Amino acid sequence: MSVGFLTCIFISKFQYIQAHLNFANMDLLINSIMSYQHWKILDIPSIFGPQYDRVDIFYSTPDYYTEMKYKETVRVRNRPRTMQRGTSNSAVGQQGQHVSESPVWVVKTDDFFPYSDCEHCFWTGYFTSRASFKRFERVSSSFLLAARQIEALWSGQSNSTGQGMESRPLFALEDALGIAQHHDAVSGTAKQHVADDYSFKLQTGLDLASKFVAKTLKNTLISDSGLLENLTFCHQLNESICDLSQDATKSLGKDLYVVVYNAKASEVSSIIRLPVSTNQTYLVERVERNATVARSRLVEPVQAVNLRTTDKPRYTVMFDTGPLPPIGVALFRVSMTNKVFSSSLRSNDLTETRRLFRAADGKDVVVSNELLSVTFDSSTGMMKQVFSQNVSLLLTQEWGYYTSFDSDYDRTEVPSSRADQNSGAYVFRPSTPEEKLKLMNASPSGAKFVDTSVGTEVHVSFDAPWIRQVTRILKGQPYVEIEYTIGPIPIDDGRGREIVNRYITPIKSEGKVYTDSNGREFLERRRNYRPSWSLEVYEQVAGNYYPINAAAYIEDSDAALSVVVDRSQGGGSIIDGTLEFMVQRRTVADDFRGVDEPLNETCGGMEPYPPYGDAKRVGDGVVIRGVHRLLVGAKGAGLARSQMDATFAEPLIFVASSPKPSTPVGALVATQSSLSALQLSLPSNVMLITLMRLQDRERPTWLLRLGHQYAAGEHEVLSQPAKVNLATFLVDWDVSKIEEKTLSGNRDWDVYTKERYDWTGELDASETTDAPIDSIVVLQPMQIRTFEITVTAKT
Hints:
By secondary structure, the protein is an alpha+beta fold. A hairpin with an 8-residue loop joins strand 6 and strand 7. The longest helix has 30 residues, at 192-221. The two termini are 59 Å apart.
């Protein structure tokens, strides 16, 4: 309870306390109130109600608040009351009978998004603000998920080191990610120099963690210590940059070794994009133990789309990994050859990898793989139709922007009462409440269709040179991948811009769109509507934007479109049948919510703040690159679920270079190349959320957290309960003890179930048990369960 609120109460109760206080006697007031409470001079229950026995002026802990609310509930539930004459309730009985009155709990299934503090002040801009940092945080989180697995399974370190947590190789990354969850960090609502510091901490933690993981994987995979000596994690693959692979491919003589780690608990196939320096033919081989290679193929490099048009051309070798084992690793060798990539090589060496079909039909080009077919306009390269899962859907796309509201330009367009509310880091506000998207047109005859060893790329250019796009149809993948490159966003005209990618379909969505809630449940959103209160519409666009952390979809009885995102961003369905996503923002005015500066990120940083400088931005605006994955089918939620976790936990790619060894590579592999921690993949509807070593235990103990990926009704099969046998699912470890914990892992489940509050008076005591947990655990739809498992290494 705040000091200000207490001051008002005590003014009304005790006239001798002054109504207006300065900062000096505010401390005196606080000390006086605390003393009065301690010596029971103040009767707290008489002031605040019988549910309170004290008031903490500085803060109220969640535990204490919950305890007081529960005591109040019990008192209400057990309080007798006398029914009055004429009561029609047949369960009451005779007049005057005493009955208990149970409180009625209202279940709220929606949230409060989008929220605002005035008619034109919707806090929907921070859903997208600092898009590059949002992606960096997502990549770092995914890396930590995998690094914790590798530390627990293969690092070989003692479980109880006797040293502090800070000595652990993953601590710096864990610490930085914890800080990044602050509401002014990943939200993008910090000052620029603070945001830069968040990035610095993340990069420092990621550097330390990646060195530890690379060393562990090298020692696990290779018996020859010299072969993967410089094994390195490539941090900038999204920019088509990997210094090690590019240096090693400047000339013949060196081989590249690629270690791919799959952190998912199911077998997956992935497309690897490896930057190289020379536009030459490359031989890609999967290395197996006691064999030179398991399979090989010749691959032509593809010219990558550079982040900046002034960069020198870059080339990328793309290859399909084939099946990657669950919680496991595979090893590949990439060698530059002097062979010419002839048509005979295409047919002989690429039969398995080139299963895409491209056909021209008048002005249209059809690109297909074994799972879907996409029709493109041959001139612009933009999509026109997608056929997948026996559903044919007309699907087009457009890029555009909303002009950021700036009171210096737009105050005459709105009521004078809020003419000063700018669009900024927190608030998204178009220049007018119903502003239409300003479209950027795809360049006529600008499409470039590129066949690769793993699929077809369609390169699209626009009349705005700061927007570029590559659409990919990849072998074995059920989605259309849209890779966009945005920036530098121009502000030469003094106006900010909010950049939007919109997908257009004939789906009869009837004002509804479904967005994920923190990557879990999908919530129904209805345009210009709130389930909990009556809404008066002031902002048609900003007032219908929602946070999209993992995916969003629209559907009707005939078709569904789901879009999976690679970072948190804002979006919605402003027009029926459409899905739009704000992917980047740049403003030139502050929105007066505490940042006190525009959201104007530049590639050169900024000068120091006053009094040491004028906080001037240095360099051009930043350039970002992102990905949307589009899925078409019958049910939107099931489509999204199939890719949400895979998009988050993409395989980690480590690269090493070495002169060609005299010994066959297969003889140097210490174990099987497809090293896996699991006996079998977990059920396809179960995600391994956490597998990490717990410190300071006498015996090796891990925290294991499993999550059901589907909600009830989202899929006929995958929405059913899932079973996992914890005793037998590991390869090299025996599970000797299993203890279920609460979700956060800090309390025993049995203790919690015995001590938890019985809010309704209907708690079944039989739910609690002291019996050891069975090794076969069942996960209900959307359920997450957490365990401590004690393990011993198999001999």
